[in-house]
Amino acid sequence: MATPQQPDAPVPAEVIQIERELHRISYLSSRARQHDRMMALAGVPLDRAAVSLLRALADVERLRVGELASRLNVEAPHVTRQAQRLERAGYVERVPDPDDGRAQLIRLTPTGRDAVDRIRETSRRGMWAALSHWDTEDLRRLAGLFQRMVDDFLDYAAANESQEPSRSPAGHDA
């Protein structure tokens, strides 16, 4: 296991390359044209924000707006507006929170679940088309390393969130 490096130590060339490649893949996957193509193939007429919300809900049974906003790293009003649009379109529904009668949870409807399944299948098919020439062991290694990297990123982000300086309402350090 590698030992943690000092924050001011030179960044290894491999990390520079990983950062560059992650940026490239992020750019490719977030382009509007790519999103529109994938939605057309999946037969789902949704924008990127709606898809992100549906995919986050698909991983859990139901969530409060605040919890969903936290998972998506956006403000709660954004999630509220998006959830209202998706509810009108039949993709999500609001249900009472069994732990708090005053609160509501958002969950996928069968239509929403079907949309997420089609989006994921379309995404997986495209990924497979791009990587189908890779051998099984390379795919297995990449999947394991990618999961490890994401887990480490999440752990690092969680640790650093608790160390961020507090801000007063005026924007000054507390």
From TrEMBL:
<dbReference type="InterPro" id="IPR011991">
    <property type="entry name" value="ArsR-like_HTH"/>
</dbReference>
<dbReference type="InterPro" id="IPR036390">
    <property type="entry name" value="WH_DNA-bd_sf"/>
</dbReference>
<dbReference type="InterPro" id="IPR036388">
    <property type="entry name" value="WH-like_DNA-bd_sf"/>
</dbReference>
<dbReference type="InterPro" id="IPR000835">
    <property type="entry name" value="HTH_MarR-typ"/>
</dbReference>
<feature type="domain" description="HTH marR-type">
    <location>
        <begin position="15"/>
        <end position="151"/>
    </location>
</feature>
<protein>
    <submittedName>
        <fullName>MarR family transcriptional regulator</fullName>
    </submittedName>
</protein>
<dbReference type="Pfam" id="PF01047">
    <property type="entry name" value="MarR"/>
</dbReference>
<dbReference type="InterPro" id="IPR039422">
    <property type="entry name" value="MarR/SlyA-like"/>
</dbReference>
